[in-house]
Amino acid sequence: MDELASNLINALFQDIFDITLDLIYLIIALLILIILAFKMKYFLKNLVFRRK
Question: Which stretches are transmembrane (predicted)?
Answer without folding.
Answer: 23-44
